[in-house]
Design brief:
The chain has 531 residues and is of the alpha/beta class. The protein is built from 22 helices and 13 strands. The strands form 3 sheets. Strands 1-2-13-12-10-11 form a 6-stranded mixed sheet, sandwiched between helices. A 5-stranded parallel sheet has the order 6-5-7-8-9, sandwiched between helices. Strands 3-4 form a two-stranded antiparallel sheet. Bound molecules: 6-O-phosphono-beta-D-fructofuranose (F6P). This is Glucose-6-phosphate isomerase.
Length: 531
């Protein structure tokens, strides 16, 4: 288990250190706390750590055995031990001909084969060689899936889609029929491909939506050739076939749902973006894998990101973090990260089953910049709780518009959070703007910013397939490193199971005409009211 003794001493010692002072105390701070990796530039110098605390955090990573754990991940050991599985998403983005093993079994040839199948299918759909039941080319895809079978492909599509795409890709996740109704609006069954994505092919929402989409296809298409419109993507091909997917694309159980966007789970994106774009994204992620495996811990981007979070959460008691992508195309990143980080590391027991005695995953939330600035950033600047911020900044987001108004806001936010404004400064500004002394005294505290609020900047020149792949892989490895240091299993998700079971029981009560006698009074009353 991780030894936190020195970390706790450093946290108690440095809790009140001011970030601005650290730049003067350590002239090398910027160089020490910035990293370039796979097309991304990371600046962690506006984090709350002193130079000494930074070194202590690196020692924490060493003592927790991050390097050995990393070797176990890449070596395909059963690090998801509650499910007896390897965790080998890096194998999905390695260059063709790699040699990964999951629990000793060689898996790379299988990965390459599925990738080639996807590319061939995508090319055929895009060229019109693959048609629907009536011989017309596909113009739209409805991607059905939830959680990891939805959020990753959505980030990829939003991140890389042309403004006016050849193929219209729509996503349906929610079991609320409204989601499907909106997605199908304006689409014609003859030119629509439905891609049902579910690792297990047992997920209630996805199967319900797949049934609805199938009925929609059946109402608009002849029976012959209709199955060409209904594709399954799964790690359980038998179940998908039994459900009625004649054609399936598979991935293996060593691909965790929230780590699956590199697999056939992104088939819809491979088709809609083209296989070359998808390959370039895989290459960007592979470049981040190489960096993660080879860079020393003190210059290792995922490790430093993880340590900054742990310093904030466990050292300085800051149990939330906001992520603000300053790029419209990255607007889904916060939702993706919520699943990646909170489903991975929202855990309450250590690997040996003993209760955790410290914090694990913080609450992660966010909105794209600049929108978030006009919503919850008030609290980040002046609320009593310190919420560390992460700015993902893209220099050139869109060819036709000047982007500096966008990214200058990101820089300004980081600056404002760190520098703040004293009451004296606020008072002087008020006086300078014509307020009298009484008015300046009355308003000065309202216009005071405490400052000393930490942030990380992740900057890139453009959001390309490569930088998007690198960014998502960065967050995956960061999440992994945190799990190693917290000594938890980042790769299971038992916490989502209980609700699923109880939802089934409630549906049974609905079918039986009312709440069962054992239901608690509040739930029983809600059930009766909603029926
Ligand atoms: O509810 C959580 C979860 O199990 C996620 O981990 C997973 O990504 C999602 O459901 C969807 O699961 P599936 O791909 O099996 O439909």
């Amino acid at each position: 288990m991780t030894d936190w003794t020195a970390f706790d001493v450093a946290a108690a010692r440095d809790a009140d250190a001011r970030i601005v002072d650290q730049f003067a105390a350590d002239p090398d701070r910027l160089a020490r706390m910035t990293v370039e990796a796979a097309g991304l530039y990371l600046d962690l110098s506006k984090q709350s750590w002193t130079e000494a605390a930074f070194e202590t955090c690196l020692d924490l990573a060493r003592s927790a055995g991050v390097e050995a754990a990393r070797a176990r991940l890449f070596g395909g050991e059963a690090i998801n031990f509650t499910e007896g599985r390897a965790v080998l998403h890096p194998a999905l983005r390695a260059a063709t001909g790699a040699d990964f093993h999951a629990l000793g079994e060689a898996v790379s040839a299988g990965v390459d084969a599925v990738r080639a199948d996807m590319a061939a299918f995508a090319t055929a759909v895009r060229s019109g060689a693959e048609t629907g039941a009536t011989g017309k080319p596909f113009k739209a895809i409805v991607h059905i899936g939830i959680g990891g079978s939805d959020l990753g492909p959505r980030v990829v599509w939003d991140g890389l889609r042309p403004v006016d795409p050849q193929i219209d890709l729509r996503f349906v996740a929610n079991i609320d029929p409204r989601d499907m109704a909106e997605a199908l609006t304006g689409l014609a069954p003859e030119t629509t491909l439905v891609v049902v994505v579910s690792k297990t092919f047992t997920t209630q929402e996805t199967l319900a939506n797949a049934e609805a989409a199938r009925a929609w296809l059946a109402a608009g298409l002849p029976e012959a050739g209709r199955d060409r419109h209904f594709i399954g993507v799964t790690a359980a091909p038998d179940k998908a076939k039994a459900f009625g997917c004649a054609r399936t694309f598979a991935f293996r159980d060593w691909v965790g749902g929230r780590y699956s966007l590199w697999s056939a789970v992104s088939l819809s994106c491979v088709i809609a973006l083209g296989p070359d774009v998808f390959d370039a994204m895989l290459a960007g992620a592979a470049a981040m894998d190489d960096h993660f495996v080879s860079a020393p811990l003190e210059k290792n981007a995922p490790v430093l990101m993880a340590l900054a979070q742990i310093w904030n959460v466990d050292g300085l008691n800051r149990p939330a973090r906001t992520v603000a992508p300053y790029a419209h195309a990255l607007r889904r990143l916060p939702s993706f990260l919520q699943q990646l980080e909170m489903e991975s590391n929202g855990k309450r027991v250590h690997r040996d089953g003993s209760p955790v005695t410290r914090q694990t995953c913080p609450v992660v939330f966010g909105e794209p910049g600049t929108n978030g600035q006009h919503a919850f950033f008030q609290q980040i600047h002046q609320g009593p709780q310190v919420v560390p911020a992460e700015f993902v900044i893209v220099a050139k987001t869109h060819a036709d518009a000047p982007e500096s108004p966008l990214w200058s806001n990101a820089l300004a936010q980081g600056q404002a959070l760190m520098l703040g404004k004293t009451t004296e400064e606020a008072r002087a500004e008020l006086l300078a703007s014509g307020a009298d002394a009484a008015e300046a005294d009355r308003l000065a505290t309202h216009k005071t910013f405490p400052g000393n609020r930490p942030s990380t900047a992740i900057a890139m020149e453009r959001l390309t397939p490569g930088t998007l792949g690198a960014l998502l892989a960065l967050y995956e490895h960061k999440t992994f490193v945190e799990g190693v240091i917290w000594d938890i299993n980042s790769f299971d998700q038992w916490g989502v199971e209980l609700g699923k079971v109880l939802a089934r029981a409630i549906l049974k009560d609905v079918s039986a005409g009312g709440p069962s006698a054992t239901l608690d009074p509040s739930t029983a009353s809600l059930l009766t009211r909603l029926m």
